[in-house]
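Provenance and format

Records in this collection were gathered into a single text stream. Each protein contributes a sequence line and a token line. The two records reproduced below are adjacent in the stream.
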Amino acid sequence: MEYGYLTDPGKVRSHNEDSVTIVKNVNEEILLAVADGMGGHRGGEIASSIAINSVAKSFSSIDNIGSKDEAIIWIKDIVSEANTSIYKYTNENPESQGMGTTLVLAILTKDYLLFGNIGDSSGYVIKNKKLHKITTDHTLVNLLVKSGELTEEAAREHPRKNVLMKALGATTTVEMDVFDVETDIEGILLCSDGLTNMLDDEQIMKVLNEDHTVQEKLSKLVLKSNNRGGNDNISIAYLKRGDVK
């Protein structure tokens, strides 16, 4: 099993508001997490770093995450704590009003695999050398697609496709969606929309299937995204196991 992560400001943004991490605990369980911050006066990067630091510090400090049910409770509790911290920071620093962050995470143990998300950063598993999206975007256009008011094709080009319906730090309380996923996978990919807005699933998988190291693949994905415009920060956390090279 190999894993790595990478974040890049892209070609358009003046600074990077994303945060990303991969950590292990004593029991060799793995947490991957990506957060895409938003807000003025560098508020976005503060929000995303609070979220990532909260989950990473808590996960690495425990010997093991416990049963699946205990892990789900841990996810919901730590996300609630991070949300409170971001909301509190905003109240104490009025110039950061409007800041918040997405958060997508995955926890892999020897017994189970869980994904969680808030916002529009994405979580995928790799199976049969293809990407399979696990998470559901909390966006206005996705809501319109689900209600039948918008086609998926129209949603991809919609001018308000980045409007979030849910984010960490936006309200006093928030609940993360949690997904229980089968463990017979070849890999895990988490990313901010700076990657998925530039590259489609086939383009991403073409790189992941190449005979390179994990870090080389991540660098190539960032390069390709920037070559296509790089209009947002790009963050990726990737774990490879099984048949994926």
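Adjacent record:
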Amino acid sequence: MTLKCKICGVSNSKILKFILDHKHPPQFIGFIVNYPKSRRYVEIEKLKLLIEIEKKKSEFVAVLVKPDNEILENIKDLKFDYYQIYDCTPEQIKFIKNKYKKKIISAITVETKSDIEKYKQFLPFSEIILFDSKGYEKSIGFDHNMLENITDNFNKMIAGNIQINDIFRYKNKKYIIDISGGLEDTNGEKNIYKIDKFLNELNKV
């Protein structure tokens, strides 16, 4: 079974086209929609042009941090399959799902083991639960071993400073790998060589 993955923080058309045309494209591609603190943030007008492309075998994910009504209205007609949402209550995310008819990735930010248990509140309306660090734009990691005893009866995505060489640790896990900083140069730009290596290596796992 090939591990599924999401490449997050894509912000230019050359990189996006390379990913979509790859012989082993990721299942998901993420775009930072409303979080200017991130160097991967894409302003709305640029975003509209960027994702006006044939998605082929990948699905597009809008990464949203506590989205307000304005940004949700601005992106509602864009080609997003999923909304990945941080810093909202279960009630708020359920409202967004019902109003905009999008599939949901609910992001749980993890610092201690007690944070992990929060996922149960989001399960009823989430297609995927993402376990991420509290680092957000800083690509900070957390101990993924804390997820060991969680049931496999729902779709789990993991993030938090994952590097290419880490993926072999997850070959027997039912995780969707969410990677961003591990595919970048020190200037924050996505590196085509690293993306190619990651997708090829993942396909072997």
